[in-house]
Amino acid sequence: MNQILLDPTGELGAAHREPLKKPESLDGLTIGLLDISKARGDVYLDRLDEHFQERGLTTKRYKKPTFTKPAPVELLQEMAAEVDVVVEGLAD
Amino acid sequence: MQLPDGIVAVVKKDCPTCILVEPVLQAIEKDGLVLTVYVQDEPTFPDVGKVVDDTELECSYNLEIETVPTLIKVENGTEQTRSIGWVRDEWQQLTGLGGLGNDLPEFRPGCGSISVEPGVADRLALRYGDFDVASRRIEVAGTEDEIEYCFDRGWSDGLPVVPPTEERLYRMLQGTTRAPDEVLGEAPPDLATCTIEKVALNAVMAGCKPEYLPTVIAAVEAALDPAFCMHGLLATTWFSGPMAIVNGPARKAIGMNWKGNLFGQGNRANATIGRALQLVIRNVGGGRPQEADQSAFGHAGKITNCFAEDEDTPWQTLAEERGFTDGQSTVTLFSADGPQGVFDQIARSPEDLVHTLADSLAAVQNTKMVNGSDVVMVIGPEHGRVFDDAGWSKARATEALQAAALVEGVDLGMGTDKSTGQPLSDPKSSLKPKFRPGGLQLVRAGGDAGMFSAIIPGWLMKGTLGTDPVIKEIVT
Questions:
Q1: Are residues B283 and B212 in the same domain?
Q2: I want to staple B276 with a disulfide (CB 3.0 to 4.6 A). Which of B26, B41, B177, B216 is the partner?
Q3: For position B26, what pLDDT does the model report?
């Protein structure tokens, strides 16, 4: 059952969680490429990686052990510490 | 609610008196009166014609039933009279049936109504009462942990908060007679409207009991008083945050600590009242570290900083100095950094002790600074005894300390290394007072053992340019 909480704030912001702001430019940022271990995800990310590299951007590659489960905490922490944005391939 | 005319009874099976009067109820019906029985627990009870299932307790709540059985006479849908428990005379009079229950004892007390049991009463008031909530309702998915949700929303100071539900808000608001929509002021830095309801929600999250709410409200009122300058105190790069000192009967009534470890952990009232104030600034005002709160270091007291004064001493209390009587409870708010301990186990005369305390005050902010922040000096019981035994009043001790807290003009000059100091034209000219007049506030508190006191400096911007201490009475 869903629970109702009451907003304890001055209610100047949105009632629901706002997503993090998207960066206006990728310049100077490190881009994480996350392969969730779905078929051909690597092909998609390889191609993206090439495009990013051509633009002189820094990338780092990551891989989830399986797409069936949430990413392990160690992997999330590693990405959070090392990159500014993440691209992940979600489907086959 | 519209009541059926005739005789109304409210009963529960789990009540020996209700079972005792079952034949009486049957007799009322047999005598041709219109009888309606509301039963709170077991709708097969009693064995009469018209039994209404009140296991949801709506009728019991609306009739304000506190005891079962309660017998009510109704005409034209309106209650005429009621009898509580089994009182034979009253039941006979109410029904007009002379011989009713003559075979029973004259009197049997009833049992507590389920509708007033702890926990139940609150839920009924929420469901059937006229409790209006102004705050936005936010639906949290059943799969989500509500405490984690509060962290994710940024409502927490870094420690878990109690999720602010409607039921908890209702219970918290029972701690005050003030209306939830009463506006206390604008909370900085966003200058958002701060109502009693918002304060209560943050008091829930901080872990306060409802009985702490009036103290939290007084602390918030002090913080929102322009003289306290909460906006600047929040925004400063300096260490300070608000510190609340409680005086009067409320200290004992809500179990506050002014003894051992009073600045530290372990007392719910101290810990949660100070925390509630900080959560109001964070959530209602929108004041968050590394945003509007630009403090370079902060300190642990910015999570919570609240304690009571020891009033079992010969000295005037903080509140008495400000014209309140010992029957009134107050909160006084100061700007405060972390405490600096002062050690003197040798001084046995007030003169010697003043010397130690005044010299130690020289280190506040910088030995080369005068007229920096105001200071609260908390005198521990063993230091306090030195003053008390010599018959020194608080005023005399304050005056002596203020007079002794002087810095040689020559010591204020900039060093050869050009470090902080005063560019004095005639550095040898005079002794400079360390604090502005009234800038040294003595308070009594602390654990029994240890010849120590505590120096609590505050924000450097003081007086009309910054913060002044603000006192507010605690009203329920």
A1: yes
A2: B216
A3: 96
In this structure, the answer to whether residues B149 and B262 fall within a common structural domain is: yes
Structure tokens at A50: 């090439």
Residue A2: closest C-alpha in chain B: B142
Taking the domains of chain A in order of start, what are their residue ranges?
A: 30-89
Q: What is the domain extent for residue B102? A: 6-122
Q: Which positions in chain B touch A6 (Cβ < 8 Å)?
A: 133, 135-138, 164-166, 169, 201
Residue B340: inside a domain, yes or no? Answer: no
Structure confidence by residue, pLDDT tens digits, B143-196: 999 999 999 999 999 999 999 999 999 999 999 999 999 999 999 999 999 999
- Residue scoring higher pLDDT (B268 or A20): B268
Residues B105 and B60 in one domain: yes
Q: What is the pLDDT, as a whole number, of residue B425?
A: 59
Q: Rounded to an integer, what is the distance from CA B139 to the centroid of its chain?
A: 28
CB B411 within 8 A of CB B368: yes
Distance CA B216, CA B474 (A): 9
Smallest Cβ–Cβ distance between B136 and the set A1, A3, A11 belongs to: A11
SS3 B130: coil
Q: Are residues B252 and B297 in the same domain?
A: yes
pTM for the full predicted model:
0.84
Alpha helices (runs of H) in B106-229, residue ranges in sequence order: 120-128, 146-152, 166-173, 196-206, 213-224
**Which domain-ending residue is among B71, B89, B122?**
B122
Q: How many CB atoms within 10 Å of residue A54? A: 8
CA distances from B187 to B137, B244, B257, B459 (A): 21, 17, 28, 19
CA distances, B399 to each of A39, B404, B453 (Å): 81, 9, 17
Q: Say which of A6, A9, A12 has its CB closest to residue B169.
A: A6
Q: Between chains, do B205 and A8 touch, taking CB under 8 Å as contact? A: yes
- How high is the pLDDT of residue A2? 86
> Are B398 and B328 a contacting pair, CB within 8 Å?
no
Min distance A18 CA to chain B CA atoms (Å): 9
| Tokens, residue B214 | 């009036």
- B177 with B111, same domain: the answer is no
Question: Which SS3 state, helix, strand or coil, does residue B154 take?
Answer: coil
Which tens digits make up the pLDDT trace of A51-70? Answer: 999 999 999 999 998 888 88
Buried b (16+ CB within 10 A) or exposed e, A16-43: eeeeeeeeeeeeeeebbbbbbebeebbe
Residues B108 and B188 in one domain: no
> Which residue from A minimizes the CA distance to B189?
A10
pLDDT of residue B396: 98
Count CB atoms within 10 A of the CB of residue B331: 31
**Chain A residues with CB inside 8 Å of B139's CB?**
2-4
CATH number of the domain encompassing residue B51: 3.40.30.10
Per the structure block, which two tokens stand in for B116? 């007033």
Residue B138 and residue B106 share a domain: no
Quote the minimal CA–CA distance from A77 to chain B in Å. 17
Please state the domain count of chain B: 2
